[in-house]
């Protein structure tokens, strides 16, 4: 990575299993540096992948980045860990990944034909070369380039995150849903939120959207499949950092990779679905209109109706109670862990079944 100052140098460590040339999976943990469940899952993945690789059981290529954000991991202020935004620029570490789509399309068009697999190989090589050759000016930009360089040619990309307090849930692009649905089953996800280009180019979409955008660019002249399943995996809440959960999540990820053929062994049975897919545009943020002590009346995982009271904000001076109600029928899937709300603070999310919002769909 680009050094931000003399005497200072950060690095990203990637662990490589199997061999290049076949199907590839890329898994990274804690792109938001203060979201730690993914790091513990990566610890358990590493142990199991070490053993599987030593036994010759990794039949594809698997790349594991056990800590994807050394910048954010090191940011503390008054003992508080600030790993979501870079303090230099104020930018979210999971936004603004560079776009090489048009440049690559123009460069490789003479090499494309009617063989879809050959087209995928040509586009992957060109994309990886373009990412690795791209110019960067800052340490943050060089971190993004490094992560994209490791992941942009993968068939499967899993970006391990967490919410504040939440059920297991996923984010992916709508064209990825057919390939994501088995992953949701293996992980026991209660919810998968779907969008096509949610805004601000987060990491997962930077890996997956190249394919549907190339398909649109070439307008049927060349077969371009959706060659990358890229998913943000929200591993419940920020304090759900236990060996029991992490070991189970790692085992389920490996079961999915075995099901996809990257690990040898009998193909596991597909588990029963624990949830469903809903539009990200139907995920409704709940805001506190005034400040006060925040107390929740519903737990995450509850199915709620429009008008149900999810929480109260209590003014400690006036004793006024402000009820926060669900705007839609849906799954109450995430809430904040802070218990004092500022005016205008987003404190929870409910996933409805119908698309309601427009514009940029992700939070800050």
UniProtKB/TrEMBL annotation:
Transmembrane segments: none annotated. Keywords: Hydrolase, Metal-binding, Zinc. Residues 22-258 form the Succinylglutamate desuccinylase/Aspartoacylase catalytic domain. Its cofactor is Zn(2+). It comes from the Bacteria. The keyword Metal-binding applies. InterPro entries: AstE_AspA_cat (IPR055438), N-alpha-Ac-DABA_deacetylase (IPR053138). SUPFAM superfamilies: Zn-dependent exopeptidases. PANTHER family: BLL3975 PROTEIN. This is Succinylglutamate desuccinylase/aspartoacylase family protein.
């Amino acid at each position: 990575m680009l050094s931000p100052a003399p005497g200072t140098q950060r690095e990203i460590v990637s662990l490589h299993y199997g061999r290049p040339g076949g199907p590839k999976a890329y898994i990274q943990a804690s792109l938001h540096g203060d979201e730690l469940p993914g790091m513990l899952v990566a610890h358990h993945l590493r142990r199991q992948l070490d053993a599987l690789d030593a036994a010759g059981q990794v039949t594809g290529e698997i790349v594991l980045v056990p800590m994807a954000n050394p910048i954010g991991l090191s940011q503390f202020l008054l003992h508080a860990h600030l790993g979501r935004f870079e303090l230099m620029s104020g930018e979210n570490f999971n936004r603004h990944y560079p776009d090489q789509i048009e440049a690559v399309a123009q460069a490789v068009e003479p090499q494309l034909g009617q063989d879809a697999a050959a087209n995928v190989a040509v586009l992957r090589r060109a994309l990886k070369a373009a990412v690795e050759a791209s110019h960067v000016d800052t340490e943050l930009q060089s971190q993004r380039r490094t992560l994209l360089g490791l992941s942009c040619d993968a068939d499967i990309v899993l970006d391990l995150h967490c919410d504040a307090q939440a059920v297991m849930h996923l984010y992916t692009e709508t064209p990825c849903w057919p390939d994501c649905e088995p992953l949701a089953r293996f992980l026991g996800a209660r919810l998968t939120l779907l969008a096509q280009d949610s805004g601000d180019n987060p990491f997962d979409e930077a890996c997956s959207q190249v394919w549907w955008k190339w398909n649109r660019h070439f307008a049927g002249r060349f077969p371009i499949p959706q060659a990358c399943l890229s998913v943000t995996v929200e591993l419940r809440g920020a304090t759900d950092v236990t060996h029991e959960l992490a070991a189970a999540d790692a085992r389920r990820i490996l079961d999915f990779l075995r099901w996809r053929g990257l690990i040898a062994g009998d193909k596991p049975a597909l588990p029963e679905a624990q949830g469903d897919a809903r539009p990200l545009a139907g995920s409704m943020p709940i805001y506190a209109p005034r400040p006060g002590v925040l107390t929740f009346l519903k737990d995450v995982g509850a199915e709620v109706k429009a008008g149900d009271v999810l929480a109260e904000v209590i003014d400690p001076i006036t004793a006024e109670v402000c009820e926060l109600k669900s705007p839609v029928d849906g799954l109450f899937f995430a809430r904040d862990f802070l218990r004092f709300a500022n005016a205008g603070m987003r404190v929870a999310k409910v996933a409805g079944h119908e698309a309601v919002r427009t514009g940029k769909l992700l939070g800050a």
